[in-house]
Each structure stands twice: as structure tokens, then as C-alpha cells.
Specification:
With 395 residues, the protein is an alpha/beta fold. The chain has nine helices and 16 strands. Helix 2 runs parallel beside helix 3.
Length: 395
């Protein structure tokens, strides 16, 4: 029985997968600098006898060819980059690279894909078709490694009928997973705005053009882009996270600089909102005697899980883990460059539970205290292999 075979192999390869994850965690590398990580992945693929080629700088694409008749092609994806975060002290497997940490679980994703690949390679006599393994750089930084991999042809020769990826979720307990069909994660754009006025003494505002007061007007007005222009059925977020008006208690500065983010789940509305934001900000500044420079750096598109492949993957997860261990996800306004794949082919991006409240493992991603319950690796490698072979028609 397929489930029994995979569970046995997952248990056999579990300790090695933990070792790989810890090695990667100790040696994190920033986006598009994953040179040692890529070399390590290639070494592991060589050990497994899986052919591969490099692309997009530090990216890797590898192929597992089933030995039975079959033409279906399915892709599996993991990202490899880390974040510029200083990890807390005291972990035997903690980061050895100062100021760099696998705080978003990409070490888990990469080790899990290697573990799943080991299972799939061991079972290649039992299936037909091709499995494409994508080890991707630069998920955490624009323009996103996925976009570069796609431009260089990762979804071609052969073209997959679908792609599957998983991502750690500390708020789901280890041993469980979560799925959502349809729109799941938001698009993400970076906003940079400068309001240029005329600085001077705070006691004589009539002699100045106060960019701080104008900025306050613009920030408030821009929220109406969300509340009065967005369809209420389309989640939309506009947030400013950095505002610098470098004056003093009695000094009005010449300019104010802002940085923020815009997120939504509809590409047409996204484009329209960009125009509305720029026009509104520039118009208010101009009406108040100031100037506004507004740059929208377009980031990742929204992520959509194609219904057929996602519902099937969910059913296979229930088959492998049991209904009680498969959760239904809500929309998530964070962004992920897996979205580029989801815009190009049938995609399923699911969540791997990595939390353990009893052990105090529940820190959010992108924090210095983030960690996982490593038992989740047993779930991740077995489930990914099982979903893959069931998608290829193995019973």
C-alpha cells in the first residue's frame, strides 16, 4: 500500500532530514546569495543520483523520472534564502552567520523537498511521469526568485501540469496541515513617498509650507482608497510603516519621507489603486502648495490555489494524515513569490504545521525566536511525497 510504503520511508529518512535542516539553519544566506546552500543541495542531489541544472544564479531545477509509462509532469518547489535577522543565543543548531537567520522556515522547505525527493527517487519504479524539483533563490526580496526562474524557463521542458509548495505555519500544531482553494495570499507592493514643502521656525507656520501637516492629510485621505473605492468583498490593506520628518520641537522640516505597503487580491483593482493613490497624494500636496513624489514598486501578484489540484491535494492529505489533522485556511494578507507560479500554472500552496504550544514553540515567522517542532519534518517529507504520487495517479 502506497501510504504504508511512504510512511516507512519517511521514518527511515527522518533523522537525515533533521540533520539537513539543522545544517541549513546553521548556515543561512541572504536572498540571491545562496551560494553555499545551492552547493549543498547539489551535493545531496548527486548523492541521490538525481540530475539537475543551475538557473537564475543560485537556483536549481532537478528531475525525477518515473520508470513506468506516463507523461504527466508535476513540479515541487522550495525556497532557500534567509532573512537579515539576528537569531537568539543558546541553540546548538543556531545560525553561525551573524545577522542572518532562517526565520521564515526556508531551511524547512529545502530540507523537506530533499527528503521528499529521496522518497520519490526510491519509489521511481512504482510510478510513471516526471517530477520536477525546484530549489529557488530570493523569495524574500524583489523581484522574487520565482519570477527569475520562470523567465529562465523553469516551467518549460518539460512543462508541469501543476506545481505544489508548502510553507511553515507556527500557529498550526506539528502533525497538522492547512489548505485553501482559490485566492489565498495577497499581492504586495512597496510604497515610497516624499512630501516636499518649505521648512522653517515652528512659531511662524504661516511663513512655511508644512510637509508634516500635509502628510497627515494625505495619510488620512489615502485610507479612503481602501474604504470607499475598493470592493468590500476584496480584501485590501494600505499601511505606512516608516515616516521621517526630520525637524525638531520648534523646527518644521523641508520634507517628509514615507514607506509603506499596499496589498490586495485582485490584479485589476491593484492597478487602478496604484493610479488612485498617486493622483490623490499629488493632488493634495499640490493644493496645499507642496510637491509629492510617489513611487509604487510593484511586487508579487496575489496567490491563487487552483481548485482541482488543491482539493485533490487536500483529499490526499486527509488520506495520509486523517481528517482531524487537515485544516481549512482563511485568506492570508501576507505575500509570497510562489504567487508567480500560481499565475502561470495550476498551483497548490499549503501550510505545514510546525508549532508546539506544549514545548513553547509558537513564535511567528520573521522573528529572532522563530523555531519549529522538528517532528513536523516527518509529516512534511511523507505528505509531499504522498500527494505527489497520488497526483500522478499512483494508488
Amino acid at each position: 500500500m502506497l501510504k504504508d510504503k511512504i510512511q516507512q520511508l519517511a521514518k527511515a529518512y527522518f533523522n537525515d532530514t533533521v540533520e539537513i535542516r539543522r545544517h541549513l539553519h546553521q548556515h543561512p544566506e541572504l536572498s540571491f546569495e545562496e551560494f553555499q546552500t545551492a552547493a549543498y543541495v547539489k551535493e545531496k542531489l548527486d548523492d541521490l543520483g538525481i540530475p539537475y541544472q543551475a538557473m537564475a544564479g543560485t537556483g536549481i531545477v532537478a528531475l525525477i523520472q518515473g520508470q513506468l509509462p506516463g507523461e504527466k509532469v508535476l513540479a515541487l518547489r522550495a525556497d532557500m534564502d534567509a532573512l537579515p535577522i539576528q537569531e537568539i543565543d543558546g541553540r546548538s543548531y543556531g545560525s553561525r552567520n551573524a545577522g542572518v537567520m532562517h526565520a521564515c522556515g526556508h531551511d524547512v522547505h529545502t530540507s523537506s523537498l530533499l527528503g521528499a525527493a529521496r522518497i520519490l527517487q526510491a519509489l521511481r519504479m512504482d510510478f510513471g511521469g516526471t517530477i520536477k524539483l525546484i530549489f529557488q533563490p530570493g523569495e524574500e526580496r524583489l523581484p522574487g526568485g520565482a519570477s527569475l526562474m520562470i523567465k529562465e524557463g523553469v516551467l518549460e521542458n518539460p512543462a508541469p501540469e501543476g506545481i505544489i509548495g508548502q510553507h511553515v505555519m507556527p500557529f498550526i500544531e506539528s502533525g497538522k496541515v492547512g489548505f485553501r482553494a482559490g485566492k489565498y495570499m495577497a499581492s504586495c507592493d512597496e510604497l515610497f513617498m516624499t512630501i516636499r514643502g518649505k521648512g522653517g521656525h515652528g512659531a511662524h507656520p504661516h511663513q512655511n509650507i508644512d510637509p508634516i501637516a500635509i502628510t497627515a492629510q494625505i495619510i488620512t485621505a489615502l485610507q479612503q482608497i481602501v474604504s470607499r473605492n475598493a470592493d468590500p468583498r476584496t480584501p485590501t490593506v494600505l499601511s505606512w510603516g516608516k515616516i521621517i520628518g526630520n525637524g525638531a520641537t520648534n523646527v518644521i522640516p523641508d520634507q517628509v519621507n514615507l514607506e509603506g505597503t499596499f496589498r490586495t487580491f485582485d490584479e485589476s483593482w491593484r492597478a487602478r489603486a496604484h493610479t488612485l493613490m498617486v493622483d490623490m497624494a499629488e493632488g493634495i500636496a499640490r493644493a496645499m502648495g507642496a510637491a509629492c513624489d510617489f513611487e509604487v514598486r510593484k511586487g508579487y501578484p496575489f496567490l491563487v490555489n487552483e481548485a482541482k489540484i488543491t482539493e485533490a491535494s487536500r483529499e490526499f492529505a486527509v488520506e495520509y494524515l486523517g481528517e482531524e489533522n487537515v485544516e481549512e485556511l482563511d485568506v492570508w494578507p501576507a505575500a509570497e513569490d510562489f504567487s508567480y507560479y500560481s499565475q502561470a500554472t495550476n498551483a497548490c500552496f499549503y501550510r505545514l504545521g510546525t508549532g508546539n504550544k506544549a514545548l513553547g514553540i509558537n513564535s511567528a515567522v520573521h522573528t529572532p525566536t522563530f523555531d519549529i517542532d522538528e517532528d513536523a519534518l516527518l509529516t512534511s517529507i511523507g505528505l509531499m511525497a504522498f500527494i505527489t504520487l497520488r497526483q500522478l495517479g499512483v494508488q
